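re: ur question from yesterday

yeah so i grabbed the chain u mentioned. its 137 aa long if i counted rite. heres the sequnce exactly as i have it in my notes:
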Amino acid sequence: MARHIVATVDEIAPGQRRVVSVNGREIGIFNVDGEYFAVGNRCPHEGASLCKGRVVGLVEASEPGAYQYSRRGELIRCPWHGWEFDLRTGKSWCEPDRTKVRSYELKVEPGGALVEGELRAETFPVSIEKQYIVVEV
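ran it thru and got these structure tokens back, copy pasting raw so excuse formatting
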């Protein structure tokens, strides 16, 4: 992998992002409370500009009406269909092949028992070198 300087740390404040082009690929650089992450700017579902989506946290429920909000700013929501991807891993929390209107067997499990989806956004290693943000592609 070649290394590419894409920005300085001053150019992307906490909670902000910047889309850069590296070797013809659009890559979103995200600052999540001082940690930087890079994901491909293409939703694996239908190709939307993923990095234009809203940055959100994780909402989980242990029972109906009891919600916990965590991991603020660590998920990106596709602007087209709302699929969410973890900025740390690129993994989706959706399983679109199972989205159907039909009845299923029901059981109650804690929110932590949910399984991550198989779709994954492309991610790239990011490092900081003397105030420069460097992405490896």
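noticed a couple things. Residues 98-109 have pLDDT under 50 and may be disordered. also The two ends are 5 Å apart (CA to CA).
anyway ttyl
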